[in-house]
Predict the structure.
Amino acid sequence: MAAVDEIRHDTASLYRFINSVCASCDSREAGRTYPPASDDLLAYIRELGDCTRLFLETFPATVPLDSSYNFYRQKLLTLRSCWFELHQYIKPTADAHTLSLPGPLIEGLLRRFRQLPGFADSRFAVFHIEKLNYLQVVASGVRAIAGQMASIIPNAPSFPSNLGLLGIPYSQGSSVFLNCLIPHEMAHFAYGENGAIRAALLPRLASSLTRAFAGLPPLDPQNIALLMDWLESWTEEVFCDLFAIWLVGPCYSFAFIEIFDLTNILDSAGGLNSFGTSPYSEFFPSHPSSLFRIKQHLALLERLDWWPQFNRTKSHYYKVLELSNSLVDGHFAFSKGQNMGTKALEAFFDVVPAIHEQVNLLMSSLDTGLAEYKVSHHAVQEYLKNGVVPSTIPSIEHSTKVFPSPVTVLNAAYSLYLESLDTLISGIANQDPSSIRDRQKWAEKLESWASKAIEDHGLLISQKAG
Amino acid sequence: MILSRTEAQERLKLPLSDLRSLVITPLLQEGSAFSTDAIDLRLGTHFLLPQIPPRPFSDPTEDRRDSNYLKVNVPFGDYLVVQAHQTVLGATLEFIKLPFDVAGQILTKSSVARTFVVIETAPWIHPSYRGCLTLEIANVSNAPILLYPGLPIGQLILLEVLNPVKEPKLGGRYLGPVYPEPPAFENVRKNLEAIGVEPASIKIPRA
């Protein structure tokens, strides 16, 4: 085949691929609606597809076999790799319609997120992921792909501004409690977008590393890069945990304990199970140990004064948090790189206070919601125990009404779920608190009432005076 | 006796621990929601559209609650098209908790009724009920009509019950729904057998 024909063939092949990708953007199920940001993302990809196809149609019918051959070949290569990257987000986004997402929860969290300086216009497209995991696609990475294409394709649309991409497990759309992990993913977006946080932390990481390796033979550049990579990953994870707790309160920690099965560290007397802690004490290249993270959660919950609201005797989840405090630095391990791993941990422990400082700097203007929680959580729980959505509560004086915030509702509902689900079930005819099936059923109901209260809150605070 | 606006508003102020307390939430534009003897209720955002497949009939003796319906979410600002002579299950936006001594009745708002849309065929609400009210919406007109979530669609009448009974526990098959609920027939066969009737086995017509 002549070189001209090869190029023509490959151009048509890419054109065909983009055709089918764009068809996927359009092939949403009838009657489904999407979060506006997801609609924008799909519309962007669709428009980008139109522009790419128009551009491909302008490829000359006869390509000269001189320097232009490589010119066209390079463009085809870049476009194909960019479209391969975008391809992975389309179906999971099209699957994540409003019936399969915790819409009211995401909206409630977004309202709080937008109160942070610099994030007033942020929004999140949501997509489903197959693993039982939550993730935030690095927005700058997707924007870079979009930028690469825009540099090749005339009149290519710009990537929607202030857009983050949140991935949630496909099976957890109706869950409220487990989805309290979403703020951690919003935090990754904040970390990536706010360059000042990283700029402040990187020198601290480098100097901690230097201190940890003082007196030892100098490290080669490759090892330094590897160590910095580990330290930065751990730093970002801890930052995002603390951010999430500030945004939504201790319910984030409860969801964290649930998804990582951390109650397995307990023995039958409520103490530390010495056989069970080691898998949770291990650091990984991309993540710090989950028990170390929980220890940091507790430190922030204590500092923000959330912790005194929870009595360790009432739930084994609280015991996990409390016991994490007894774990000293030497309890944690990182088996990579032998001695290098131990030193990396030493450097990381040194930098943890600086991570707390950065979270304070970013979040201190945002009310934690604790003051309202202290006033309203008993009433919210009373409503929930009686099967009533707690979105409007007459104040004690009966002269005004309180519309509990999402933070109050989430934390009151989650702690009721952990402490007093039996009380709720015992109040319902023909239901048995010892039945797993009944517990599951009423836990789901509890989540639906909490979700409704969060949705109502958005309506109640945004209505015009009337 | 029908509760007046004043009485309903007083009961909304009572703490939940008071058995006579009434909850209606979110009560948007509260100032205009009350008439002298009724409270306007709005249409929620979730719907169940009856589906004919996979079987050409609905049988109350079978527990196939969800499979007969297509779930649809219509966000605020959007609308649902209900074709002429089509039916759909919707729900009130408001979650209601009735006092132990008050029953309720939901009626189609007169302006909505004049478009030949009926919202309820089982309008009675028992004392102590809690939940969003499922609406059996039927467009009995000869033209399609648009339903907008958030718009007032019904009105709630509250009626005092004489010598009310305080039930020791919450009960009922429909406790606490926040979205429209499909029918929950219970023990249909047992019920028929109790009166000496053997339910017929179903013969599925062949295509």
